[in-house]
Request: fold
Amino acid sequence: MAFDAYEIDRQDAEGRKIVLRGRSIGPAGGRPLVMLASLGRPGSDFDEVATRLADNGYRVTLPEPRGIGGSAGPMEDLTLHDLAADVAAVIESQSRAPVTLLGHAFGNRLTRMTAKDFPALVDRIVLLACGGRIEIPEKAREALIGCFNQSLSPEEHLECVRYGFFAEGNDPSVWRDGWYPDAMLMQSSAVRRTPVEEWWEAGGQPMLVVQATEDAIALPANALDLKARLGDRVTLVELPHAGHAMLPEQPGLIVDAILRFLG
Reply:
C-alpha cells in the first residue's frame, strides 16, 4: 500500500502564507487517524505503524510541521494554538471529522492543544510518551539537545540518541537521521509560550496513553499524573522494553494497543 502526498495552502490570522505538506495511507473511506510527530522529527517516524493500521482499514494522515518536508510558514513568536490551527486545517482538508488524533512526545502536547481548541474535529486521543509536567532529568535533557547539535561527531550524536530515546539494548542507529533543528526551535518556543494548563487535560475526549517503561525523557510519572487527574477517561497501557523513541522499538505492541482502544 502506497502513501499519497498532499499540499494545503492557508493563511494565518495576519494573512501570512502557510504551506502544509504531508502524506496519507489507507483506504479512502477508512476510519480517519491523524498522527503528529515528536520534537523536530518528520512524519515518516510513523511509517511502519501507519502502514499496519492502514492494513487494518484505517486512513492514516501524517502531517509535516513547519520546517520539515516542504511545510513552511512563520517560525517565530508562535504558540501551540498557532500550530493546532495547522493541524485543524489538515483534518478539515484531508479527513472526515471527527478523527482520532495521535501525538508522540512533542506531538502529544500538540494533540491535546488541538483537541482543546477544536473539539468538534477530534473524538479520541492517543498519546505516546506524554511528557510535559514532570521535569526531564538533566542528563536526558542534555541528550535531547545533543540530538540536534550538528557540531557533534557521529559517535557523540548517536550516543545522545541512544541515551535519550532508546531502551537498553535497542538499536539507536535507526534514528541516526531525521533531526531538524529549525523545527525543534520553533516547536520548543511554542511550548514555552503556552501555559501547560491550557492543553494538559485536552478537550474532554477519551484518551489512550501508551507509556514506555524505559522512557528517560517523558517519565512514567507524567502518565500516572494524567490517569490520576482524569480517571476513567484515560486508558493507560505500559510498553515494555521501549524508551522515548518507542515507535521503532515496539511498533507491533503500539498498533495492538491502538486497535484495542479504538475497537
User: Anything to note?
Assistant: The chain has a mean pLDDT of 97.
